[in-house]
Amino acid sequence: MQPDPSQAQTPDRAIVTCRGVSKIYGDGAIEVPAVNGLDLDIAAGDFATLSGPSGSGKTTLLNMIGGLDRPTSGTVVVDGEELGGLDTAHLAELRLHKIGFVFQAYNLIPVLSALENIEFVLQLLGVGAKERRDRAAAALADVGLAGMEDRRPSHLSGGQQQRVAVARALVARPAIVLADEPTANLDSKTADDLVTLMAELNARSGTTFLIGTHDGRVIERARRRLEMVDGRITADTTGSLADAAQ
C-alpha cells in the first residue's frame, strides 16, 4: 500500500493538535470529567500508544480525535481542520477521507467478503469499480491475506478479521489511523503478529498510528508512549523499549 503523494507527510507536521480539551459527562448536578484540559500533538509518521488505567480517558480522547464525540471545551485539529467548526455531515466526510479506525470488535460487515469490506470504503469515496477492486486486493496483500479475498468474516480467524480491519483503515490513505485496543481479543501470537504488521506499515508508508492499549507488547514496540491518568497526559516518552532492550 503506497502513500498518496498528495498527502506527503513530513516528520515535523502535526496531524493532530489538541488544546485545552475537556470532556465532561453529566447533567449539571453530577459531572464526571473524562478528559481534563488536555494538550497533545501527534506528528506525521508517529507510531504512538496511549495507555493508562480503565477510566483514564483513553477511549474518550480517541473518539474526540476521530470526530465520534465532541469536546465540552477546547479545540481538536486533525490534518489542519478544526473539528469543532464542522457539522455532522462534514465530520463524516473528514472521517471518511482523513481518519482510519481499527476497533477492538473488528466491526466488519458480516454479509460482505474480506475484499468487499475494504472496497466499501472506496465506494463511499466514489472510486471506480476496477480501481476499487485493485486497491482493495493490494491492501489485503499488504496485510498478508492474499488469496482470502472471497472469505466472509465468519470464515476468518480473529487475527485475520483484525488484519482486514487494518487494511480497511489504510486503503483510503488516511492522515492518521486510530486503533482502540486492537489486540484485546487476540491470542498472544496473533497479537504479536498484528503489532509487527502495524509497525511495518508505519515504517514503510509513514502512516501515522495512535493506538489506545493496555497491552504491554504493543506499548514496548511504540516509538512514542503516552500515558493518561484522570483525563490528563502524565507521561510522554519517545524511543522504542524493544529497540532499547536489544
TrEMBL record:
UniProt keyword Transport present: yes
UniProt xrefs under InterPro entries: AAA+_ATPase (IPR003593), ABC_transporter-like_ATP-bd (IPR003439), ABC_transporter-like_CS (IPR017871), ABC_transpr_LolD-like (IPR015854), MacB-like_ATP-bd (IPR017911), P-loop_NTPase (IPR027417)
Record protein name field: ABC transporter ATP-binding protein
SMART domains named in the record: AAA (SM00382)
Lineage: Bacteria, Pseudomonadati, Pseudomonadota, Alphaproteobacteria, Rhodobacterales
Pfam families the record matches: ABC_tran (PF00005)
Keyword Transport: yes
Keywords associated with the record: ATP-binding, Nucleotide-binding, Transport
Domain of life of the organism encoding this protein: Bacteria
A GO term, aspect molecular function: ATP binding
